[in-house]
Amino acid sequence: MNKNLKELIELSVIDKEIDSFNPQLEAIEKKLKKSQDKIDGAQSEIDSIKSSIDENVAKIKIYEEQIVTLSEQLKNITKKSKDVSTEKEMKALSLEEDIAKEKISFANEEIERLGSINEKKVLSLDDLNKDLEELEESQKDSVDSSKVLKSEIEEKKSGLFAAREAKINTFDQKILSFYEKIRNWAGNSAVVPVQKQACYGCYMKISDKSYSDVIKSEEIVTCPHCGRIIYIESKSSES
Ligand SMILES: [Zn+2]
Prior knowledge:
- By secondary structure, the chain is mostly helical.
- Helices cover 80% and strands 5% of the residues.
- The chain has a 4-stranded mixed β-sheet.
- A hairpin with a 6-residue loop joins strand 3 (221-222) and strand 4.
- The radius of gyration is 40 Å and the shape is rod-shaped.
- The chain binds zinc ion (ZN).
- Zinc ion (ZN) is lined by residues 199, 201-202, 204, 223, 225-226, 228.
C-alpha cells in the first residue's frame, strides 16, 4: 500500500477516536444541565412561595392596622353617644358602629384565612427546602464524578493529540491539507473503505477503473462521486 495512504488511514483513525469523546462529553454536560434545571425549578418555586407568604404577611399587617383604627373609631362612637340628644343622631351613630364592627370582623376573618394559608405554605416550603437540599447534594456528587470523567477523557484526548502531532510532523504537507479539506465537509468519513465496489462514504458504486486503482493502492484514490479518500480494507485493519 502507498505509504501516504497508509498514514492517512491511521491519521483518520486517530481523528475519529478524538471526536468519539465529544458525545460522551456532551452527555455529561447534558446530565449536569438537567439536574441544574431541576434545582433552578425548585428554587424558583421556593422563591414564589416565599414572596406570596410575604404578600400575605403584608396584607395581615394592613388588616391589623385597620382593626386598630376601627377600634379607635368605636371608642369615639361610645364617647359621642353619651352626648347625643336626638334620635336621628343616635341612629347615625349606631349605623357607624355597625359598619365599624362589620369591618373589624371581616378584617379578623381575613387575618385568620391568610394566616392558615401561610401555615400551609410554610409546611410546603419545608418540604421543598428538603427536596432542594437533596437535589443540591446529588448535583454536587454529579459535578464531582463529572470532573473525574472529564479529566479521564481529557487525558485520553491529549494522548491522542500527541499521537496526532507526531504523525502529522512526518506528513507530506500537501497530502495533509488535501485530507483536511475533505475533512472540513466529510468530517470523520474523509477516509472510507470500499466494500463490494462501493464507496462507504456515499454508498455509490465506483467504476471498474477506480476499483482497480483502489485495489492496487499505489496512489491515493478518491471516490469519483463524493471525493472522499477511498481504500481497500486489508484483513489486518479490519480486525
Ligand atoms: Zn463516495
